[in-house]
Amino acid sequence: MEIQNIVDSAENNFLNLNSGIESFPILRIQNLNVYAEKNHILKDINLEIPRNKITVLLGPSGCGKTTLLKCMNKLTDLYKELKVSGNIFIEQDDILNTKKDIPSIRQKMGLLSQRPYLLPMSIYKNVAYGVKLKGIRDKKLLHYSVEKNLKEVGLWEEVKDRLHSPATKLSIGQQQRLCLARGLAVKPRIILADEPTSALDPISSKIIENLFVELKKHYTIILVTHILRQAVRLADHVVFMYYGDIIEQGPPDELFNNPKTETLKKYLVEGN
Amino acid sequence: MIFRRIAVDKTNNVWMVASLATILALPLIIGIGLYIKSIPLLEYQSAGSLVTSSEWLPSQGKFGFWPFIYGSLYVTMISFLLSAPVCVFAAIYLTQYASKRIVNIFMPIVDILAGLPSVIYGVFGILVVVPFISKYLAPIFDVSTSGYCILAGGIVLSIMSIPYMLNIMIEVFNTVPIGIKEASLSLGATSWESIKHVVVKRSIPGVISAFGLGIAKAFGETIAVMMVVGNVLKISHNPFKGGYPLPALIANNYGEMLSIPKYDSALMFAALLLLVVILLINIVFRYLIYKTQIK
Ligand SMILES: Nc1ncnc2c1ncn2[C@@H]1O[C@H](COP(=O)(O)OP(=O)(O)OP(=O)(O)O)[C@@H](O)[C@H]1O
Ligand SMILES: [Mg+2]
Question: What is the value of ipTM here, to two decimals?
């Protein structure tokens, strides 16, 4: 139980710390530009992401939603053809121009992608992977973290008897929840979810949606989706993008009921 | 109309099955053919004693194949030890770190090297590797050698295997979806940690299969090795001494000295041995691939 206390008290400290500055945006993007060889993918983006809310990024295919998410955890580094400039502040750190080590910055963001990309290892190790990278080697602590995070995504009961079998044996819906659990295990501040339900059946999608509603108590969620009804169900803040620009943003009622621009109107009509 | 389509469908099936059957039967037919040709020798001495005996005096009716098998294993091992690490690291570099420009320059070169006839590698061995060994490498170890030796064979073979294995390995590493690497990075791994724990780990069955194909190819390679290995019939652990691999035995002697009784049959048996060893290598590596895939 001692272990549990250590971990939980650390978490509580972190939550208390947050409560004082609730009104500050957790993430601020200023003048973000991304160029590929030929096109200008993101055009001078300015955006603030509210804390402990679900921010939904909407927009037609190819408008730059995925690219924007990848800027937020510096996965754009993987694509040498992309030129990124501007500032992205997470808790006072400008992650695009910082000298701090990138792995620890990335751990502030949990990534959930379109398809569950499992690490080639067991269920247990998938969750423990990020925790071990934080330097935690203690078996009990690792086990505690694995159990806690699998419970958090409602997977524990389903997999507790086969923790050491390959993760690929799980169903797609379970795999996606496992990906969420391993992301949560590194205790991120923000969850970046890029169309996380697009490969899932309706029931698994619903589970993920419900989890997001639970998780926003402790995390900030940025969700890309093409499903308008999902956006309506989940969004606290909506950002509409079009060809690399943010055209409109605001609370969901406002945006969905009284869209200001013709582009968004058209998008909403076509989406329904 | 519909009957015609069904008929076409059926005939196509027959063709496919027939060509498949031919491919499946080919190693069997070759194996049986070689076996029948080796019967005169096998009637006279058992396969086991042929393989383990070291005396090769055909004119006295003594056929010991061990020196040839030993020579083949030795050059193959050296070749593998030299080429495998180079291939793994080069493939990792080209698929994970290199810019598109470097890849675009490098890949055609690899393809050209993989396609060069082996006699060119043999000439390269004679012109470069053999003198390098005798003039520079051997003196370091305080031995004198003509340079025509096991080591020269191993080096030439490794140079030949590199483009071949590298091609396969690049394919293998490229099949790892970038999303998996992104997942690992987003969990806080460094680039190298992601490559080690995720990209390479996922590619292990493919890398093993590349190793297997490379080893089988090296074991059977004839001309290039024959040109530099010395073709000396003596078992020595010293890689600066010459050796005599199995394929060289066949290539050097087939069509000559066939007046000696059973010589013809002995060369057929050597070919059969080659076939069996290559089949064994394939089976072992299939098993290793299977084993690593499960986990
Ligand atoms: N590495 C790259 N090199 C060149 N162009 C790129 C690269 N990555 C993305 N792009 C381009 O940037 C634009 C935005 O792509 P992005 O994947 O961010 O769109 P998206 O909004 O996520 O689309 P979707 O809804 O289809 O997922 C596209 O035109 C795409 O072709
Ligand atoms: Mg996308």
Answer: 0.89
